[in-house]
Amino acid sequence: MNRFAAARRVVVKVGTTTLTHGSGLLNYRRLERLVKTLADLKNSGKEIVLVSSGAIGVGMGELGLSARPQDMPTKQACAAVGQCELMYTYDKLFGEYNHSVAQILLTGEDIVPGKRRDNAANTFRRLLEFGVVPVVNENDTVSTEEIEIGDNDTLSAVVATLIGADALVLLSDIDGLYTANPKEDPTASLIPVVEDVDAVMSLGGGSSSIFGKGGMATKLHAAQTACSAGVDMAIINGSDPTLLYRLFDGENIGTYFVGRKQDV
Length: 264
Description:
By secondary structure, the protein is of the alpha/beta class. It contains 8 helices and 8 strands, in the order E-H-H-E-H-H-E-H-E-H-E-E-H-E-H-E.
């Protein structure tokens, strides 16, 4: 039995491969199921923050690009186009369930200790008080190598600690953490519970998607950040967003990383 059933403030991160088809264009059927599930969980009394990847991937699809751009101006152009499409879609879908959304775009400068981080935390807090669903992404249109966060797995863990979340859920294209890469090793088995994240860091791998840049390694780093702050985390398969119901009913789904706040 996990502790997700008791979680009130929840961060859910959805990756590019979950949101889009192989073409990079939005998978509207899956997105609709995700929003419906999150709206229902919110109606049950949970506060929901959604960290959404996909701006660059969606922008690539909109602009007809078949490979992830390598130069910064093209990445930022894709992000500018894709973020508009993402937020329009989230606003429309959540609005069908009478929930408002707010866009929050962050860079590395916004999450280091200081006034900007405090301002971000206060904004999140007030939006949640108003019953709004914050939709968070890295501000790819202005991020540079010097100030980028790097990936939304890391961003979601930072947001979870920033707002004092009870739980963080990463929706991925895999069922959870395995003993080996299940796409390459048929004997790989799912690890249901991780008590010590440091002990499994060697199991991280890279991203296999041309549209996203995450991978298991970034998810494990996110688990380090979240769990050390006392935030429980889970990796579950995002192809079926309704798995969130089972997770928050207390069932062990995917891989559960046990949060243990470290003494300072």
